[in-house]
Amino acid sequence: MSEKMIVIGGTAAGLSAASKAKRLDPSLEIQVFERSGYISYGACGLPYFVGGLIDEPEDLVSLTVDQVTNQRGIPTYIHHEVTKIDREARQVTVVDLDRNTEQVYPYDKLVIATGARPIRPNIPGVDAQGVYCLRTVEDGIRLKRAVTAQGKKQVAIIGGGFIGLEVAEELALSGLEVHVFEMLPRLLPFLDESFSTAVLNVLTSHGVQVHTGAAVEALLTEDGAVRAVRTGDGAETPADLVLLSIGVTPNSELAAAAGLELGVKGSIVVDDGMRTSDPAIWACGDCVQMKNRVTGRPCHVPLGTTANKQGRIAGANTAGGHDTFPGVLGSMVTKVFDLYIAATGLSLQQALEAGYDAVSSVVTKGDRASYYPGGHDTRICLVLDRKSGRLLGAQAIGGESVAGRVNVFVAAITCGMTVEQVNELDLVYAPPVAPVYDPILIAASQAMKKVEK
Ligand SMILES: Cc1cc2nc3c(=O)[nH]c(=O)nc-3n(C[C@H](O)[C@H](O)[C@H](O)COP(=O)(O)OP(=O)(O)OC[C@H]3O[C@@H](n4cnc5c(N)ncnc54)[C@H](O)[C@@H]3O)c2cc1C
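Above: query sequence and flavin-adenine dinucleotide SMILES. Below: predicted holo structure tokens.
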């Protein structure tokens, strides 16, 4: 008799798991249950949908329910919420949200890919009309509708993380007055301080008003709708649209209620093969705990790249494989107006907190031959262990090329290279794409000066 597998959550991690498992073991009877009205969507594109660069929500979707169900042979149900996992009976309770009916489905193997959700701060006015989050396609549709509605002029974005800043860019480009409130003294605080200043400058030069060291205490309302944001210093900033963007928390309540082990920030503990504390249950994506590849310590870094890879690994292993997930460096890239920002590995503060005798080194270098038109300055910050010279982290800001350059550092950190070894890399050169001494080599050679002799 064929085995039954159930996947909870139908986006990056869940559908990767279902597709991989079905490909490896076509005899598996797999069902996917998704609470929202969309599957297989790129949440990463939502800021650009809200800003109008992407027209339709369907443009963000890679696979439809029909394609997954009929072409891949994986019956997939939207508006179906799993409300309980019964580990003893090996069954899940599913509510059909359209019909308001409940049904129980048995499983031999279960994959939890429930992702994460935006954190809602516990402040007055947070449930008022005009207050939004951005996570699902439906969130994006609601926010875009509000942004394009007549009369909406002033936007307050609470949280200066990369999602908040991407939306700030898009809404400022749409002509709205945008304020960003960041509780910490600077934006993107994992970056070198001078990089945070560069991000602040590019935002303000495009008209975005940034309030750092500004904890929002209350959202002031009138007739149930938000009208202003009040910060700790008592200042009130008018806002008729508020986006909450202060981070996410794993959707691990189902797992917790089922007695599965939880770890960092309430994420689900899994082994290298994405198996939870119950051998019949795997978990993957933003709902699980990960291992930091530099420190070896548990962490929770919710990113789409990771979710897709973990989903494939969970899927392969439910189909009898022995794949392993090696952990994360937290590699990220984003763009704020014309400034690109990329980072990987540990920031200086993280490295010091992890017990390294760490030091950082910052250089600025053009990303093309100096005589070739159109280049940008690239600023690179390397974080290294002072004694061994081992590279622990890297950050870069500048033009589009920072992504590729940081990816080189990703490889270097993964291989445990020292800055001296990075300095010896045989990198490419041609005037339109790189100077003879690439910014990577300049950064490494400068960082070598900080290594203890
Ligand atoms: C605006 C934005 C921009 C981003 N940009 C980037 C980027 O540039 N690069 C990057 O790497 N990452 C980015 N991310 C993060 C990336 O989107 C997530 O890491 C990724 O979506 C995680 O995938 P997941 O499948 O683990 O979880 P999710 O995408 O959260 O999917 C989980 C799904 O499970 C469903 N679900 C939850 N509970 C239940 C239940 N009980 N029953 C049924 N269904 C349930 C949810 O409805 C959801 O659809 C961005 C995220 C956002 C919101």
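Residues 4-40+58-117+249-318 form a domain with the FAD/NAD(P)-binding domain fold (CATH 3.50.50.60).
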